[in-house]
Amino acid sequence: MEKTGLFGEFVKGLWKENPTFRIVLGLCPTLAVSTSVNNGIGMGVAATFVLVGANIFISLVRNVIPEKVRIPCFVVVIATFVTIVELAMKAYAPLLSRSLGIYVPLIVVNCIVLGRAEAFSSKHPPIRSILDSLGMGLGFTWALVVISFIRESLGNGTVLGFYINRSFEPALFMILAPGALLTIGILIGAINYFMSKRR
Amino acid sequence: MNQLLKFGLVLGVICLAATLVLAVTYEVTKPKIEEQLKAEEQSALKSIMPSADSFVEKTLDGIEYFEALKGRTVAGYCVRVTGNGYNGPIRMIAGVDLDGTIEGVSVLENSETPGLGAKINEIRPGESEPWFLKQFKGKSAGTIAIKSNIDAITGATISSKAVTDAIRKTVDDLLGKLKK
Amino acid sequence: MDLSAYIAIIISTVFINNFILSRFLGLCPFIGVSKHTGPAISMGIAVTFVTTMASIITWLLYKFVLLPYNLQYLRTLSFILVIAAFVQFAEIIIQKKSPALYRTLGIYLALITTNCAVFGVAILNTDMFFINNKAVAGSFFMSVLQGFGAGAGFTLAMFLMSGIRERLEFSDVPKCFKDAPVTFIIASLMSLAFLGFSGFKI
């Protein structure tokens, strides 16, 4: 069963099985919060924390949980970690928690988290699960940063809140909903193109 | 049946553990969260009325407001205002002097669309305060209105109007009750 | 609260703040199940049913359990559990009562537990509604209507998208843009069209 090396488990989430660009999962938060790089990083880190925490736990108890009730059990574990993140954010990063809004509790239904729990952690020992979920989380984060960088710079004329060039008139379109969908569509298409060329 | 019991038991134990963990986290973070909210409010109050030394929270006819004190004399009032924004509530604090002239407005929380409504809180490069909110300064609270003496943000009339109307109504209400 | 406020909620959730096209909730099924009109509409109906029912249940839970006992921090956990339990329950009932309906809706019901739209509407219901210039957690009818409106908006977007994608099968899309990428770009154009509604604030 254990074919890939430990390093491979980690790396696959970054590129080959990148949750956003390759598997196309967890899109709601990706598109909704990617209006600024700050939000993108915040969301990425929050989701990574939930992913790693929930997956370690699920991997530890994987032999105790009966097959039939596994989904509700996973969901409860994930919801617990999400609420911890939500409370911690409110206490230590109130500004970030404001701008992420309802998308923090929505990490619960982020398909990436439940997807990894179901497909990986419930079948693998903790060390592999940590590496897998960390890779997936970081893959998700960098995807978010790329998308939010494109949207913030083109749509608002800023990067991390700093103005790039005063004379640049931002294209509002990019920061609104359609811009998000367009950005991710073109990015996925471009990545598909490069992947097929390489082969 | 036996199996069902086992399922229920496992799920129950997990739920119980989860609730316990959350209760502990909540208790640990609660004071910190409240402290953050207080600190945020205080810094907003200070920025609205830099000359006041202290703010005392009071209640009158169900309206909560702050009395800004300069030494022992009352220099003005601040009040929490909530506007009906485009994507949800906009929480603000507005400050007026004794004549009802606005000293300043500060937005604490908003979920307006980035690039449009969120500009109510946008600070232009090289400036120190949001340009939209600056317009309110020095105007009588009862007179402010979009299109007459307040310029709306392009493409975000709803957000601009929500802010303006909420401030006018809430402050007017407070001043009316204070006069009685 | 008069009738116009209720109508306003429906119009606003279906068109102005369409769950898929402006809030990005429920995107996964929107991309995954929108290839043909039939399944797309079935999915839409299933989602509408669940969002409406979930609004009712979570509203009751929030109002009578979480608020009185100051347990708001359990919101996420309890909502997702209740929704998951409800979906499971609905699945069993439909399977028993109407096998034909189950065959068309069944597989979609299972997917709905992790649909952000359902959970999103439950959270939004507790967050914001305006009565007399004060933000309050939604009244019962407003929540139910918002739940229904969210589902209806979802169905509308699914229907439009599946119609376009059925046509798309005959067109010559570059290979690397097939499926997901081109769907996103179409969704972007649809979302742009829906932005036209955004001037309204009812």
Question: Which features would summarize this protein structure in a list?
Answer:
heterotrimer; A: 199 residues; mainly alpha; two-stranded antiparallel ribbon; 2 strands; 2% strand; C: 202 residues
3D structure, described in words:
The complex is a heterotrimer of chains A (199), B (180) and C (202). Chain A starts with 5 loop residues before the first helix and ends with a helix. The model of chain A has no long low-confidence stretch (mean pLDDT 86). With 199 residues, chain A is mainly α. In chain A, strand 1 (158-159) and strand 2 form a beta hairpin. Chain A is globular. Helices cover 66% and strands 2% of the residues of chain A. Chain A has one domain. Chain B is an alpha+beta fold and 180 residues long. Chain B has one domain (44-179). Helix content of chain B is 41%, strand content 24%. Chain B has helices at 2-48, 131-134, 157-179; strands at 54-60, 63-70, 73-84, 89-97, 102-109. In chain B, strand 4 (89-97) and strand 5 (102-109) form a beta hairpin. The radius of gyration of chain B is 22 Å and the shape is elongated. With 202 residues, chain C is mostly helical. Chain C has one domain (3-193). Chain C is built from 8 helices and 2 strands, in the order ααααααββαα. In chain C, strand 1 (130-131) and strand 2 form a beta hairpin. In chain C, helix 3 packs across helix 4 (75-97) and helix 6 (116-127) runs antiparallel to helix 7 (140-168). The longest helix of chain C has 30 residues, at 37-66. The radius of gyration of chain C is 18 Å and the shape is globular. Chain C starts with a helix and ends in a 7-residue tail after the last helix. Residues 131-135 of chain C have low confidence and may be disordered. The A-C interface holds A 24-25, 27-28, 31-32, 71-72, 75-76, 79-80, 82-83, 86-87, 102, 105-106, 108-111, 114, 173, 176-182, 184-186, 188-190, 192-193, 196 and C 21-28, 31, 73-77, 80-81, 84-85, 113-116, 118-120, 123-124, 127, 174-177, 180-185, 187-189, 191-192, 194-195.
